């Protein structure tokens, strides 16, 4: 409240009752705070899917566990536990926040990248609303993959929630890779459309894909081998 200004839009698109998935783009290590602020102001405390390593950070990890956030164990046998926990949270009426890109965007102009299928899996399993949320401004406080914030002058956090992504025609179909990719593509397109409105620009015709550029799925793509995070 003290360090940032706020431009909250589209809160009327957030469901009044029942669980749902909120899917923001990912610009900065700062944006989980601003995204959570947006949802709390709308009356929906979020339950995040977050990297398991963050839960082991002193103090921060204790706060996350106390707030019933959901750790994700990537590329392990425990990865399915996060999915089950997210489904249970939605079914109990909670708002689950999922970053569908899975990491900070690597797009040179900070547009949303090709998404991962986690949000789509939860949505298809629960038939819950998926609310696309675009954000712009957190990267001015903390640029991607940097650790030194720029708090002054106060930056404006622009948020815009769109209407639920249309997925009903995909319900009750066999959950194949093609189905998940289609659902994910619709989610990413909806997020991008909201961000285009905020920025007053058009996103590139082709979405950035880390795999095509030979980049790892997570972590700082500019870090040299052997360097710390």
TrEMBL record:
<dbReference type="GO" id="GO:0003841">
    <property type="term" value="F:1-acylglycerol-3-phosphate O-acyltransferase activity"/>
</dbReference>
<protein>
    <submittedName>
        <fullName>1-acyl-sn-glycerol-3-phosphate acyltransferase</fullName>
    </submittedName>
</protein>
<feature type="compositionally biased region" description="Basic and acidic residues">
    <location>
        <begin position="201"/>
        <end position="215"/>
    </location>
</feature>
<dbReference type="GO" id="GO:0006654">
    <property type="term" value="P:phosphatidic acid biosynthetic process"/>
</dbReference>
<dbReference type="Pfam" id="PF01553">
    <property type="entry name" value="Acyltransferase"/>
</dbReference>
<dbReference type="InterPro" id="IPR002123">
    <property type="entry name" value="Plipid/glycerol_acylTrfase"/>
</dbReference>
<keyword id="KW-0012">Acyltransferase</keyword>
<feature type="region of interest" description="Disordered">
    <location>
        <begin position="201"/>
        <end position="229"/>
    </location>
</feature>
<dbReference type="GO" id="GO:0005886">
    <property type="term" value="C:plasma membrane"/>
</dbReference>
<keyword id="KW-0808">Transferase</keyword>
<feature type="domain" description="Phospholipid/glycerol acyltransferase">
    <location>
        <begin position="20"/>
        <end position="138"/>
    </location>
</feature>
């Amino acid at each position: 409240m003290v360090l940032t200004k706020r431009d909250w839009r589209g809160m009327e698109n957030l469901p009044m009752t029942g669980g749902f998935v909120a899917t923001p783009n990912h610009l900065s290590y700062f944006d989980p705070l601003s995204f959570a602020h947006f949802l709390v102001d709308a009356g929906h405390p979020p339950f995040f899917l977050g990297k398991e390593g963050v839960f082991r950070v002193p103090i921060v990890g204790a706060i996350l566990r106390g707030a019933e956030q959901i750790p994700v164990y990537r590329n392990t046998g425990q990865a399915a536990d996060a999915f089950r926990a997210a489904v249970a949270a939605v079914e109990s009426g909670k708002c689950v926040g999922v970053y569908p890109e899975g990491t900070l965007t690597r797009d040179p102009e900070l547009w949303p990248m090709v998404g991962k299928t986690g949000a789509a899996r939860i949505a298809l399993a629960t038939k819950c609303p998926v609310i696309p949320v675009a954000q712009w401004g957190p990267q001015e406080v903390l640029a991607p993959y940097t650790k030194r914030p720029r708090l002054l002058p106060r930056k404006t956090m622009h948020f815009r929630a769109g209407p639920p992504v249309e997925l009903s025609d995909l319900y009750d179909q066999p959950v194949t890779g093609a189905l998940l990719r289609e659902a994910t593509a619709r989610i990413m397109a909806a997020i991008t459309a909201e961000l285009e409105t905020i920025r007053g620009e058009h996103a590139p015709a082709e979405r950035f894909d880390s795999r095509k550029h030979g980049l790892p799925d997570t972590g700082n793509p500019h870090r040299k081998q052997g360097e710390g995070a």
